[in-house]
Every structure is written in structure tokens, then in C-alpha cells.
Amino acid sequence: MKRVFLIVLDSFGIGEMEDADAYGDKGTNTIGSVSTSSYFHVPNLQKLGLFNIEGVTCEKQQIAEAPLAAVARMKEASRGKDTTIGHWEIAGMISENPLPTYPNGFPGEVLDEFMKLTGRGVLCNATYSGTEVIKDYGDEHVRTGDLIVYTSADSVFQIAAHEEIVPLETLYDYCRKARAMLQGKHGVGRVIARPFVGTSGNYTRTSHRHDYSLLPPQTTMLDQIKEAGRDVIAVGKINDIFAGKGITEYVYTSGNAEGIERTLAYLDKDFEGLCFINLVDYDMLYGHRRDIDGYAKAMTYFDEKLPEIMKKLREEDVLMITADHGCDPAYTKTTDHTREHTPFIMYGQKIKPVNYGTRETFADIAATVLDYLGIEQNVSGTSMYESKEMI
Fold it and tell me: Are residues 207 and 220 in the same domain?
């Protein structure tokens, strides 16, 4: 019974890509910045081979003489640096065109239709920090009931509302209406519900965020695994990113700690196929907020939990660790994602510990998963699977 546990450390980039300058991200290096913190301590990732990956440069770097895992540096072939595009490519779908972004806010035609659908006015309509936007527009929202609509450098349409002014289910309904509306040329990657609570001067976002993603327009490894009669288990925001397509079971999480606990629980369950996990705190809580120490502490926590994860792996299980983009917490030109290479670590009793250098696309991960599960590939990418029996 073969199982793959694929963990995405959301935003854990390992250095700028060759085209980073075109995205305004020249010189970015998430792992390099995080490693400057005194809280960064990842001996278990080091033993697996994290610092052996081609191009990794950071403080406290210690090359493993005999790494336990296969490793590679991944390039993103798709145009973009957002969550949706990155995860779709990990799942075998390369996006030739970037999803639409709105650095100057959404056009009138979009907002007029949205206001007609919801019966409410709109505030802000600009690129904004999620924490700052409720600070600046929260009082007016509470007074008028108008919805706070904002975006970022990513392809997102975000709706913030106070839970006592707009009940959660109402906010989610507005998001579903926006998702149905935002198609074609305005087909943003995600519509995001951003509920908050509190009083004037003390508004805080809640854990009731919900993402409504664009349906992947092509076949992904998730579709293929499901069609083969295997399980596709989504942990965290994976179900939202793929709009439920190709997923057989899912569970949402409140953050990294719960995501890791859910993973440990699935390690104890019998299933065959893929458990796809997103650990979002690196990006949401620390990368965007440019919190180097917070990011480092979160990486250290994951590393501390790794032995427990690895101990639960069965003979035919494979653990894969990667990321979907960068979000360099030391990069002050923006507070957005950064165009970086990502790490790939693959560990298991049957996995040959090979260094695969730099790969041309994240989609090689999908090809590897399908190859290991014995499913004929119908997605982009080239497999990296080599078993110890092949030696």
C-alpha cells in the first residue's frame, strides 16, 4: 500500500530565480534571510539534505556528508509567483499566462456587478496589507455595512468584513457570488473571505478565512490519482486551492501546528494514494509581515516535529517536502511573494538519496508522485523517482 505525504512549506524559497528581476525580486532569498535569526535551527532538515541543494546559500549552512533523502532545486516554469499557480504546477499543470492582478484596484465594471450581487457598497479597492486595511477602513465598514474589498500583488479579490456586521455564512455567500462572477479576463486565482472582530483601534482577523479558487483548467495529478481509485487527502488550504477538484477527502486547519497534527493522524490511518499538506503560517503570519524571527521559529518547530513524522512512515511511504514560491521576510521593497527557487526533499525506505541538481519545473514533483504510485502520467514534468533497488 503506497502512500505519499507531500508537505508544502508555504513560501519557503531558497534563492532568486534567473528572472526574478522581471518580478521586482532581484536578490531575494527566503532561506538566507530566515537563517540570520538566532531562532533558526533545523538539524533534521540538514540531515535530509536541505543544505546540499544546489544554489542554497545561507548562514549556519552545514552540508550533510551522507544525506538521507533525494534533493533538488526546483524552478517555476509558470508565469507568476502566487499560491495558486505554484500549487497547480506542483500538481503537474504549467500556466503559460499569469493570472490577472490589479495593482490600481478593480475596474468599475467589476465593482458595479459585485455591488449589484451583494446589495452592499464597497470600501478601499486598492492594494493593501490585510492588517492595515481593517485598521484604516474598519470603522467605516462597521458604520455603513459596506464591504472592504482589496487586493495584493497576487491574483486575489479579498473581502474583509466584521463578523458582527456580516455573518460568516453571508460573507461566504458573497465570496461564492464573486467567484462565479470573476471568470475569463477577470478570472483571479482566489476570492478570499477575510473576516475580523474587535472594536475601533483593536480589530483583528479571525481564523475563519476561506479561499475560493479558480477551477484548475487542466488535468492535475490529483485528478489522475482519484481516477485511479486511490485517495487524495487535502490538509489545510489545499482543497480551496484546487476548488475541490481531484480531492477525495479534506480537512481545514487553523495553522501549522494543527496541520502537522493532522498529518501525524493521517500517518496512522490506512489509505492508498496522496496526502497533500499546506503549512501556511510561514507565508501568512511571517513572510508577508516581514517577521524574520517568527519565520525562523516556525521552521524550527517543523524541524522538531520531523523525527515524529519520519518515525511513523511505513515501509512503502514516501515523504516529500517542498514550497510554492518565496516570501523573503527581509525584503522591504514590498510585502508580497518573491520569485524564488524552491526546495525538494524526498525521503523513504525505498528512495535512493540522489541530488538531482536544478529541475526546470515544479511539475517534476507531480510526475514523481505518479511514477511512484504506478499511475501512467498525463501531466507535465519528468519523474525523479529512483528506488534503492535500482542501485
Answer: no
Buried (b) or exposed (e) across 78-100, using 16+ Cβ within 10 A?
A: bbbbbbbbbbbbbbbbbbeeebe
> Apex CA 137: angle with CA 188 and CA 200, to 5°?
135
pTM: 0.91
CATH number of the domain to which 182 belongs: 3.30.70.1250
pLDDT at 387 over 90: no
Question: Do 26 and 83 reside in the same domain of the chain?
Answer: yes
Confidence label for 391 from pLDDT (cuts 50, 70 and 90): very low
Cα separation, 387 vs 225, in Å, equals: 20
Residue with cell 485517495: 231
Within a domain: 100: no
Q: Do both 74 and 155 map to the same domain? A: no
Pairing of strands 342-347, 70-74: antiparallel
For 72, residues 6+ apart whose C-beta sits below 8 A from its C-beta are 53, 54, 343, 344, 355, 356, 357, 358, 359, 364, 384
Task: Give residue-wise pLDDT tens across range 63-75.
Answer: 999 999 999 999 9
Structural domain boundaries enclosing 157: 108-213
| Band of residue 389 on the pLDDT scale cut at 50, 70, 90 | low
Encode pLDDT of 183-198 as tens digits: 999 999 999 999 999 9
Strands 210-213 and 190-197: antiparallel
Q: Are residues 260 and 319 in the same domain?
A: yes
Instruction: Say yes or no: 80 and 172 in one domain.
Output: no
